Every structure is written in structure tokens, then in C-alpha cells.
Amino acid sequence: MAPGAPLPMDPIAEARRQWIAHGWADAADGMAAYSSVMRAHQLMYSRVDAVLKPLGLSYARLELLRLLSFTRDGALPMASASVRLQVHPTSITNVVDRLERDGFVRREAHPTDGRATLVVLTGPGRALVEKATEVLNEQVFERPGIPVGELRSMTGILARFRRAAGDFTDPAPRPDPL
């Protein structure tokens, strides 16, 4: 839900107060943190959606196009895209279907693995992802509404939470060159 007129109070702070009043003080801070992250997600997603919608993109479509643009050849096996974007293979299939219909990607047989399908970025797809990234950077990411130092702290806190939840592991350290 996009923000309208500001509420006269913070509903999450009120929910925390109610949690404490009802005897759940040990859970009140956790409830407030989870609720705050979910509301922040809604607010952030609304900003991103408002920028991408006029370009005919969703964030999921942009993520796949951007991932493909980062590869050497503009191509990835669909299964690799699913893993890297941390979404179910069915979701990748749906995104690829829409992007392919619009001419921004195409499917190709994998040259060495007969079971795999590559998703390949097209010229129009590359142009769209560059435009979308430029607009998203200018209108959202360069001015996120949180000071840079706090953004870095927030990102670090959330990364630690994600790591502890099993979202990722730290890469093995690279050996020192001889």
C-alpha cells in the first residue's frame, strides 16, 4: 500500500505498546522489528514499482534482465538464474515467458547440456535494462530516504540476520598469491 496522508501515530509503536500491555513484553521488540521490516518493504516496493511500471517492468523482470546483463554473454541457464535470484524455478519460467513474449529475452538450447535451457538477453532487453536501471538509480537508489551511514548499518544488520537464517554462507577466503 502506497503512503497516503500520514497517520497521526505510528501503528507499529502502538502494536508494541499493546503487546507489552497484554503480557507479551518478551516478544514485543521482535514483533515491532518484523512489522517494521515488512512495512518498510511495502514502502520501498511502492517506490520501485512506481518507477518501473511506466517502463512495463516489475522488479522481478528487472532483476532477471540485470542478472543477464552482468554475464559475459548475456545468457544463463534458467536453473542458474533461479538459484542466483533465490526464487522458485516456476517463478523464473513465468518471468522468462513474459520477457520472451515482449522480445527482451529468448530461450536457446544449452550447447553442452541437452537438459538445460539458456535464457538470453536480446538487444531490446539490454536497452530496456540500461534505461530502467538509470531511472531507478536516479529516482530511488541515489535518494533512498535514509542517510548513507545508516543504510550501510541497516544493510549489515540485515545481512547478519540473513546469514544466521541460512540465506547464504560467507565465501571461503582466497589463498594469498605466491
UniProtKB/TrEMBL annotation:
<keyword id="KW-0805">Transcription regulation</keyword>
<feature type="domain" description="HTH marR-type">
    <location>
        <begin position="30"/>
        <end position="163"/>
    </location>
</feature>
<dbReference type="GO" id="GO:0003700">
    <property type="term" value="F:DNA-binding transcription factor activity"/>
</dbReference>
<dbReference type="GO" id="GO:0006950">
    <property type="term" value="P:response to stress"/>
</dbReference>
<dbReference type="InterPro" id="IPR036388">
    <property type="entry name" value="WH-like_DNA-bd_sf"/>
</dbReference>
<dbReference type="InterPro" id="IPR036390">
    <property type="entry name" value="WH_DNA-bd_sf"/>
</dbReference>
<dbReference type="Pfam" id="PF01047">
    <property type="entry name" value="MarR"/>
</dbReference>
<dbReference type="InterPro" id="IPR000835">
    <property type="entry name" value="HTH_MarR-typ"/>
</dbReference>
<dbReference type="InterPro" id="IPR023187">
    <property type="entry name" value="Tscrpt_reg_MarR-type_CS"/>
</dbReference>
<keyword id="KW-0238">DNA-binding</keyword>
<dbReference type="InterPro" id="IPR039422">
    <property type="entry name" value="MarR/SlyA-like"/>
</dbReference>
<dbReference type="GO" id="GO:0003677">
    <property type="term" value="F:DNA binding"/>
</dbReference>
<protein>
    <submittedName>
        <fullName>MarR family transcriptional regulator</fullName>
    </submittedName>
</protein>
<keyword id="KW-0804">Transcription</keyword>
